[in-house]
Amino acid sequence: MTFEEVVNYRRSIRFYKNLSIETKRVKHCLELASLAPNSSNMQLWEFYHITNADAIKQLSVACLNQNATSTAQQIVVFVTRQDLYKKRARKLLELETQNILKNSPTEKHEQRINQRKLYYGKVMPFLYSRFFGLMGIVRISLVNIIGLFRPIVYQVSENDTRVVVHKTCALAAQTFMLAMANEGYDTCPLEGFDSRRVKRILKLPYGTEINMVISCGIRDEQGVWGDRVRIPFEEVYRQI
Questions:
Q1: What pLDDT score was predicted for residue 14?
Q2: Would you say 62 and 197 are in contact if contact means Cβ atoms under 8 Å apart?
């Protein structure tokens, strides 16, 4: 399919046929999802691919027994991992250093490596650190002072950084759903679920959050709720 055909094919499917889908193909779609754009390339996400029938049943209960999960062949849970910011920053500094040594002119190596050391060694840990909201207050105070003299990003509270992590995880989820559509598979993104139960089922650590639960399968005709409905494009489009 062309990209336009993929976008038009993708629908949120609420009922699936009792037909299996290939685990390897779904996994490949998740590999493509990992290429999605994300803030500072921190990749503060994890993808839980559930193929076990008993686990799917448990997750369906946690998802309020919606048809989209009770008839699903597989389920993918997109999880935010802001708690891994130090580990990811260290790894990215290592990878970026290798990238610079491989692709940058020799005379630029020291300057660019020092820039990455500052960014991933200092800025990112400071931006993503959390301590009962107090670190956010420190960051807000700092940027408001700096903002008096030059443009700066003001969304640096602990809640702001949480939103950023969820936004970039959602970009991966959307990439996954489009990749699945390209495979001829169907999905349904769910926000109606008991996040505490989902975390217990997946044995997730305290610092994680559930971004989205996506059911997977092959659509049944009753799983498509009529024509796609959108408000007129002219109401949402603004050219400046």
A1: 96
A2: yes
